[in-house]
Amino acid sequence: MFDSIYTYLVILIAIGERILAGCAIFHAVLKKRETRTVIGWVGLIGFSPLIGSVLYFMLGVNRVERRGEEILDDLKQSACDAARKAIREGLSADVPFEFNNQLANVGKAITGFDLLPGNQVTLLDGGKAAYSAMLVAIADAEYTVALGSYIFDYDSAGKQFINALIDAQNRGVEVRVLIDHVGSKYSKPSAVTEMRKRGLKVQTFLPTNVPVLATYANLRNHRKILVIDGKTGFTGGMNISEGCLFDATANHAIQDVHFQFDGPVVEHLQDAFLADWKFAAREDLPADTWFGTPCTEGSTWARGIPDGPDADIDNIRLLMLGAISAAQRKVDIVTPYFLPESALVGALNVAAMRGVQVRILIPEKVNIRMVQWASMEPISRILERGCEVYQSPQPFDHTKVMLVDDEWSLVGSSNWDPRSLRLNFEFNVECYGFELNQQLSKLIDVKIKAATPLTQEKLDARRPFEKLRDGITRLATPYL
């Protein structure tokens, strides 16, 4: 009797294992975009049906997309409202830049947002300039302050912002602060805890329940957005941390740039913040209070580019590909983390072979060593086709900028790595205008003049151990 029960139990477990494996394979074939990813999962499940299936349902199923679509639905709806408002105000979407007409169509097709004219974009080079402008704007706020950041440290910089936000709230200004949960853990005590103690309305984005995995958690809100009265906005790559205030000789100093926007594109920044806030706080903020009437006196055309691990998953990557393919003379890229996927590597190589000057500036010492090790392989692939790579000296350069020719600029929070382009929520702004492009071009020229060229000969001169280390680390690229 016992033997019979045992036999039936084994048969039932075997059948259940096959059914589970079949479901996992079926899901992978239908849902995974990358062929190599499908092959990898199917191979693992075939080799070990039970373990492979369990691992797939734990790690391979994109729950990120399902949760991210909640944000996307809100963002699309508010974007429609903003677009209608822009049309009512008589803003034209006809781009006056002959070279970039087709590229402008790419951005429209990707986001559904109109390219908006009349924006004044101010380059804020360094934390002192950026924080000063942001704090002045908060001090001048009359109705609303919306602040979102990936990292908000409770240090000398964070305390300045907390005090400014409290002062604004005491004046009767509506204040909302959204900090990524992982980013809120970078300092102790947490700035979020202190803000709540002092009565500010603050939320964290998607709390992570496994502290040991927090550094590598997905679905992080990497956006940096500040909007004042719905009329003036700030965005870029700069977090709130005293490291951005240190001089070049201090420990943990960070070079970075940020941008102030005055004009219609601020609506796109506010759209992104309000949708994120609703997702995190479950609070609808009324449009008539949180959207202002922006000035239209600037010369830059601009469009917000939201990106995230949902239906927006490829927005920034596709825009980058479109911009590279449209380049006629030059492509300049400044990024702290350079781990581009094969499509971007190929696009850069083809541009270089067409005669376009392609320059990439990365830090000489990356603050995440594994990222630096893994980046050697894609760097080698672009060097051999004529792209130029430069390494900037300390302090660590966190700047995120991309330029094409003389009119197009892309600024914002995205890095050139899979985490930014696939796993995080990001926000960039594409800008059309000669003045901003030239300011950024001069800044990049200065950085490159102080940098050291990275050549194929230097890569080939690495010791065998270093090449092996870099090659092994490259296998973890999707999660770096």
Shape designation = globular
Strand tally: 18
Q: Strand count, sense and closure of the main sheet? A: 16 strands, mixed
State the fourth-level CATH superfamily of the largest domain. Answer: Endonuclease Chain A
- How much of the residues is beta strand, in percent? 15-25%
Instruction: Identify low-pLDDT runs.
Output: none
CATH architecture classification name of the largest domain: 2-Layer Sandwich
Percentage of residues in helical conformation:
40-55%
Looking at the chains present, what oligomeric state does this protein adopt?
single chain
Q: Which structural class is indicated by helix and strand composition?
A: alpha/beta
- CATH fold naming of the largest domain: Endonuclease, Chain A
Record the SSE blueprint.
Elements: H1 2-31, H2 35-47, H3 49-60, H4 63-88, H5 101-111, E1 116-125, H6 127-140, E2 144-149, H7 156-170, E3 174-180, H8 191-197, E4 202-205, E5 220-221, E6 225-228, E7 232-236, E8 254-255, E9 257-262, H9 266-281, H10 287-290, E10 300-307, H11 315-326, E11 330-334, H12 342-353, E12 357-363, H13 369-374, H14 376-383, E13 388-392, E14 396-397, E15 401-404, E16 408-412, H15 418-423, E17 424-432, H16 434-449, E18 452-454, H17 456-460, H18 464-474
Parallel strand pairs: 2-3, 3-4, 5-17, 8-14, 11-12, 12-13
Antiparallel strand pairs: 1-9, 1-10, 2-6, 6-7, 7-9, 10-17, 11-15, 13-18, 15-16, 16-17
Helix pairs in contact: 1-2, 1-3, 2-3, 4-9, 5-11, 6-7, 11-12
Q: Top keywords for this entry?
A:
480 residues; alpha/beta; Endonuclease, Chain A; 3 domains; 16-stranded mixed sheet; two-stranded parallel ribbon; 18 helices; 47% helix
